Amino acid sequence: MAGDTTSIGFEYVFPAIRGLQAGREYFVSMCPLRLIPRIFLFDEGEIAPEVRAQRVLNKGRLPALTRYILDNPDDYVFSALTASVDGDVTFESIGGEGVATRAGQIRVPMAARFLINDGQHRRAAIELALKDNPDLGDETIAVVFFHDAGLARSQQMFADLNRHAVRPSRSIGVLYDQRDDLAALTRLLALKSPVFKHHVEMASSTLSARSSKLFTLSALHSANQSLLHGLKLEKKAAQDVAQAFWERIDMLLAEWQMVRKRAMTAPEVRREYIHSHGIALHALGRVGNTLLRDSVDPRAWGPRLEGLSAVDWSRSNPAWEGRAIIGGRVSKSHTQVTLTVNYLRRALGLPLSPEEQRAEDAYQRGEA
Fold it and tell me: What is the 3-state secondary structure (H, E, C) of the chain?
C-alpha cells in the first residue's frame, strides 16, 4: 500500500509512475490520508516570507474545507498535492519495456522531509477531518513528488504552480454546484422563470457592455441568498416564494419587461438604470426578506412592495451617488449595499436596523 514503511532500512515506499518535466524527474503516487499529516510538512511557523516556500496558512478556510470532506464522504474530490522531498529518492522500475519502465515504486528514507508546495490547506483540512472520521484514513489522495533542489527552487515551484491559477467565476460555481439547494433554486429561476429566462449570464460574473443579458447568475444567487436568509422553508416552498417575489418585482420595473418585449435592449437598460445590477438585486432581496419575516399572511407581503414603483432607478438620480454609485460607477461594497437597502426601506416605509442606521448617519454626515 502507498506509504507503507519497511522495517529494514527505515524507508517509506510509495508505488509510483516516473515522469520527466523540464529535464527533472518527478513521481506520481497515491498516499493514504492517514499518512498525510504525519509525513507532509508545512513551514507554517513564524518564518519570514523570504525564507518560506509557501504562503501563510489561512486557518479561516479550514472549517469549510473540513466540513466539505465530512459532509460528503461518498463524493468529495481533492486534486493532487505537490511536495518536494528533501532527501534521497530511489526509483525501482517493475521492469519490462516501454511504459512498464516508468511504473514501479520509490523509496524515501524516513529521515527525509516532505514539504508541501501546493495543497497546504487540503493537507490541514484532511488532518482535521481525520480527527472526526478516522475511517477516512484508508482513502487515498494523489501526490506529485519532486526532488527538493533547495529553497530557491521550492519558492519558484510555488510561484509557478500559482502563477496561472484562475479561480472560476462565481456564476460557474453556482451553475455547477449540485449539492447546494440555493444554487439549484437559482438555476431553476434562471432557466424557467419568465422574468429571467434567456436574460441571465450563466458562466461569467460580469457583463460586457454589449452583452444581451440583463443579469448574472452569481448576482441572482446572492439576491436569493438575501431573500431567503433565515427562513425555514422546504425546498419547494422556497422555490415558490422566490419565483413569486421576483415576478412581483418584475411587475414594478417596466424596463425589465421592455427588454423582454424588445422595446429596449439589455445594454441600454444596464447603462441607464441600476435595477438589473447586482447591488440592486441584493438590496431587493434584503428588503424582501424583511417583508417575508414580518408577514403573518404569506400573501400580505406583495402589496407592501408597491412603494418601489415610485423609485427612480435611473443612474441620473442624484440619490444614488454615494449609495449605489461611487464616482459614476456602480459599486457593490458592503457599505454601498447597506445604503441602497436604506433607500429602498425608506421608499417602503420600513425601519432601519441599528447597523443600517449607523451607516445612514455616516452617509448623511458625508463620511460614507
Answer: CCCEEECCCCEEEEEEEEEEECCEEEEEEEEEHHHHHHHEECCCCCCCHHHCCCCCCCHHHHHHHHHHHHHCCCCCCCCCEEEEEECCCEEEECCCCHHHHHEEEEEEECCCEEEEEECHHHHHHHHHHHHHCHHHHHCEEEEEEEECCCHHHHHHHHHHHHHCCCCCCHHHHHHHCCCCHHHHHHHHHHHHCCCCCCCEECCCCCCCCCCCCCEEHHHHHHHHHHHHCCCCCCHHHHHHHHHHHHHHHHHHCHHHHHHHCCCCCHHHHHHHECCCCHHHHHHHHHHHHHHHHHCCCCCCCCHHHHHHHHCCCECCCHHHECCCEECCEECCCHHHHHHHHHHHHHHHCCCCCHHHHHHHHHHHCCCC
